[in-house]
């Protein structure tokens, strides 16, 4: 019987090919649940194992193929066994320490590239689940859909989780390319793609120089990982937004800039000339549409105003840069470099994977990503999800990545770092909490 295969899209193929043992390309999320019994963690593991075969996508593996000029395909895994992916760990007193050790381990590329690790709390009152998904299998929103499929049933969960992507207005180089209506559609498409690629390429060239980053954000890859989490009050963030203008996301990004400034100062490192380039991923998924597998991503690129001492000036600077990116649209600019993957043949991804992995350090200094979660309460085995920390992939040459989600009135930052380069990640987490209070005080809220 023939097996249905789905060729990997160019961006998925790029993520698949840049992985190495020192540079695992998976994203994750650590969910903390309130246990209702001593056996809650075991029950949760049993439910995850039983439900996984019913979730489309979790039984799909990725297989390299050399026909078709070096691509890869997504196909149903023969004899898929969810017990190979769901593991019950020993009890722990530190969920983040356990998560960091597990995030170090590359996923088994011969199997569907995901894992769920159930971590019982030593206190018996809590347990956690660490989900890991290879970036070639899912971006943040797709991973949310897959993880939600093994939670206790909730109505319309996937639709609530998605937000519309922003339209890209026509401007810049593309606006003067000849596109008369009598040209064939294929010609118009090629001209549009060429204009987009040239716009992105020019922006990338401008973004790679000059660099005003910090050595603290740079690291030779060791494969080691450390994670930390921060919980903030969303109402306090909203009050700041209403007073200063902009969006909640503007405030959350500005908090990262201020926390980095505090962290560097406590390390004894100068921050007055540090303006690291932050890549802000932007989803291109459509709300309530059938969600394709893999990645649908573009991005914005901004300078984090770490060098600015005044918290409100930092916030205004972030808001202005984000507004400028939104005006330009998510399909142009240096942050949209992922879209160039569409113009590279599969063999180019296969042969150029190591080069692409190293190029991330030239383009940006830190990833700051937001993963929206549904506002309704999630449960597993009847146990409520109390906290959830998203973890972004750590690009090669980077020492830190930041992901953030809002869930049930609270903001959750998930920090991932190279454990050898950033042994003091908890100090950065603490700096985020203190930064929120400083910004709130400065804004008079």
TrEMBL record:
UniProt keyword terms in alphabetical order: Acyltransferase, Glycerol metabolism, Lipid biosynthesis, Lipid metabolism, Transferase
Pathway in which this enzyme or protein is active: Glycerolipid metabolism; triacylglycerol biosynthesis; Lipid metabolism
Domain O-acyltransferase WSD1 C-terminal: 294-438
An example Gene Ontology molecular-function term: diacylglycerol O-acyltransferase activity
Gene Ontology CC entries for this record: plasma membrane
Catalytic activity: an acyl-CoA + a 1,2-diacyl-sn-glycerol = a triacyl-sn-glycerol + CoA
EC number: 2.3.1.20
Enzyme class: transferase
Family, as annotated: Belongs to the long-chain O-acyltransferase family.
PANTHER family per record: O-ACYLTRANSFERASE (WSD1-LIKE) FAMILY PROTEIN (PTHR31650), WAX ESTER SYNTHASE_DIACYLGLYCEROL ACYLTRANSFERASE 4-RELATED (PTHR31650:SF1)
Protein name: Diacylglycerol O-acyltransferase
The organism of origin for this protein: Streptomyces indicus
């Amino acid at each position: 019987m023939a097996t249905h295969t789905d060729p990997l899209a160019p961006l998925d193929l790029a993520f698949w090919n840049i992985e190495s043992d020192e540079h695992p390309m998976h994203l994750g999320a650590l969910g903390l649940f309130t246990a209702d019994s001593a056996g809650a963690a075991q029950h949760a593991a049993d439910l995850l194992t039983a439900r996984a075969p019913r979730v489309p996508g979790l039984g799909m593996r990725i297989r390299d193929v050399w026909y078709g000029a070096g691509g890869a395909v997504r196909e149903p895994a023969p004899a898929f066994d969810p017990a190979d992916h769901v593991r019950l760990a020993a009890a722990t007193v530190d969920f983040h320490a356990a998560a960091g050790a597990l995030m170090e381990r590359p996923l088994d590329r011969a199997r569907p590239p995901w894992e769920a690790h159930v971590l019982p709390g030593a206190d018996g009152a809590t347990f956690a689940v660490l989900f890991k998904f290879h970036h070639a299998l899912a971006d943040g929103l797709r991973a949310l859909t897959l993880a939600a499929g093994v939670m206790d049933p909730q109505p319309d969960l996937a639709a609530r989780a998605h937000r519309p992507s922003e339209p890209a207005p026509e401007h810049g180089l593309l606006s003067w390319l000849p596109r008369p209506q009598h040209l064939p559609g294929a010609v118009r498409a090629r001209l549009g793609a060429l204009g987009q690629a040239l716009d992105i390429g020019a922006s990338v060239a401008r973004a790679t120089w000059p660099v005003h980053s910090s050595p603290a954000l740079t690291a030779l890859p060791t494969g080691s990982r450390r994670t930390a989490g921060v919980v903030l009050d969303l109402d306090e963030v909203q009050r700041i937004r209403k007073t200063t203008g902009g969006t909640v996301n503007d405030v959350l990004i500005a908090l990262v800039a201020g926390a980095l400034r505090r962290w560097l100062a406590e390390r004894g490192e100068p921050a007055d000339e540090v303006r690291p380039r932050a890549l802000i991923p932007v989803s291109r998924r459509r709300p309530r549409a059938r969600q394709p597998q893999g990645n649908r991503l573009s991005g914005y690129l901004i300078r984090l105003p770490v060098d600015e001492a005044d918290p409100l000036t930092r916030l205004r600077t972030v808001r202005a840069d984000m507004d400028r990116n939104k005006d330009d649209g998510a399909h142009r600019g240096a942050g949209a470099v992922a879209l160039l993957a569409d113009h590279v043949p599969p063999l180019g991804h296969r042969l150029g994977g190591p080069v692409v992995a190293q190029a991330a350090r030239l383009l940006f200094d830190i990833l700051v990503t937001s993963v929206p979660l549904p506002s309704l309460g999630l449960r597993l085995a009847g146990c409520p999800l109390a906290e959830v920390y998203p973890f972004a992939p750590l690009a090669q040459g980077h020492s830190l990545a930041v992901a953030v989600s809002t869930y049930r009135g609270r903001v959750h930052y998930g920090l991932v770092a190279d454990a050898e380069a950033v042994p003091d990640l908890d100090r950065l987490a603490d700096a985020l909490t203190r930064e929120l209070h400083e910004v709130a005080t400065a804004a008079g809220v």
